[in-house]
Amino acid sequence: MSVRYHKYIGGLWDDLDLEDLVDGLSDFLLQSGFGFEPEEWDENDLQSLHDAILDAVLKKGLLSEDDLGRLMNDETAMEQFLQKTVERLMREGYLRDQEGQPFRDPTGGGSHGPEGKPIKFELTEKASDFLGYKTLKNLLGSLGKASLGRHDTRDLATGIESSGPSKAWEFGDTLNLDVSATLLNAVAREGLTVPLNVEYSDLLVHQAEYQSSCATVVMLDCSHSMILYGEDRFTPAKKVALALSHLIRSQFPGDSISLVLFHDSAEEVPLSQLGKVRVGPYYTNTREGLRLAQRILARQRKDMKQIVMITDGKPSALTEADGRIYRNPFGLDARVVALTLKEVANCRRQGILVNTFMLARDWDLVAFVKKVTEICRGKAYFTTPYTLGQFVLMDYLNRKVEKVH
Questions:
Q1: HSE on the CB side for 21, CA within 13 Å?
Q2: Alpha-carbon distance 241 to 234, whole Å?
Q3: Quick one: which H or E segment has residue 87?
Q4: Stated pTM of the model
């Protein structure tokens, strides 16, 4: 029996830098419903993905002009290139079928499965994490060099990294023993004898800078106003949430981050599912978002607790005691505002800092946010979708390096 070996000649899809491609697809993969009719928002079909891949390849120059020209002049080759690229994205873990099945194209092309249903896709956790990393890298690059701290305070504790003088051991201290100083204490007390008796009073331990931990809840407004007036404010907000999550997990592993969406009501959503979140024809139930955020933070045993609220609208809804939703989109409803500010006051009593990042400058909204900051002694940032990331990350990083007195 003889075996013949042939040189493998890969297709153009094998030469693509998938990280650059996914980065180029980020706006499409995280789309918030901007530019779509409500009934179209769930149509993440294969044809739309093909169009987005081609657009990303053109914009980022992922193929040479010669290769691109050949594809443009050969419809069959273009179709094969797009299909194989999607297969590679799914094979390497960036996309998956919404049914959780590996990608197959039983029709030999096209965007429908064997039952005529559109083949739909969704982001994987790997893709969400990568997009968070890329967004964080781009945002920090625009900010310049930053030294990432660990919630430094002026207090000393018996930790792992020594940075202060040794101290006498006390019950409850980490036994990070200063061996030399402890032995010298014993020798000074008993003299140079063998065996050397070491007593509790001889023990000295290293001191380390005490580093506190922080629990963060990102409150993300997904009311309809986030995609109105010809501007998509929601997709940039989703990117910022992914970047902040990546920053915390990679640089501050002792911290925690949770995501709360608030609209007619409020719900906690895993960050891995953020890519699927869309805006809807909703009002703004800020109070319910704050109540849910407080319940989440109550479960966290952290020294510092904060809420990062990203919104572009004044509160316009309430959840009644019987579960009904009260809505009033006209101006600032006195009852809605009063009950919302009551929750802000509850946050302050629990030691929860509320920092608000506003994507609009309406007079009513400015007045409401000013009152929120007065009550909770937090901060308010009036920004745009283009500068939101810089404001959020700089605020978070500043809290890492400022001293707690």
A1: 24
A2: 11
A3: helix 75-91
A4: 0.67
Ordered structural domains, the chain, with CATH: 12-123 (no CATH), 132-150+212-401 (3.40.50.410), 153-211 (no CATH)
Q: What is the pLDDT along the chain (405 residues), one digit of tens a residue?
A: 555 544 434 578 877 888 888 888 887 877 765 544 444 444 456 777 888 888 888 888 888 888 888 888 888 888 888 888 888 888 888 887 765 554 454 444 444 444 444 556 677 778 877 777 777 777 655 554 444 444 444 444 444 344 567 878 777 666 778 888 888 888 888 888 888 888 878 888 877 554 568 899 999 999 888 887 777 888 888 888 888 888 888 878 788 899 999 999 999 999 888 877 888 888 999 999 999 999 999 998 888 899 999 888 789 899 999 999 999 887 788 999 999 999 999 999 999 999 888 887 777 778 888 889 889 888 888 888 878 887 887 787 776 655 333
